[in-house]
Amino acid sequence: xxxxxxxxxxxxxxxxxxxxxxxxxxxxxxNFAFYIEGRDVNNIVSGSINRAMSYNINAENDxxxxxxFDVMIGAPFEKGPGCQDIEQIxxxxxxSGGKKIYMISQYLLFSDKG
Length: 114
Description:
This protein is mainly alpha-helical. The protein has one domain. The chain contains six helices and no strands. It is globular. The N and C termini lie far apart (53 Å).
């Protein structure tokens, strides 16, 4: 029987996050070049992933969308002027991560923030 320690699990998780971060960076470089000129994309993506996870946004597609918001609007987008409603959505622990991203997408679509 193989035993995996907590430390080994944490190392695997960190490796998964690094790999995911690299994929997200490639996505941003290929699809959002206009927004990233002169910016440190690795730093933006890393910070965005950490913030998304702190808001209990855990699904990869939802995290990617959160990163896209940061790239297009400015990181951290929820702290920007007039974005109190977005921050309230993110801090609502009764909402799933997917629901938060959906609500933010709708808010940005129908407000002057998008």
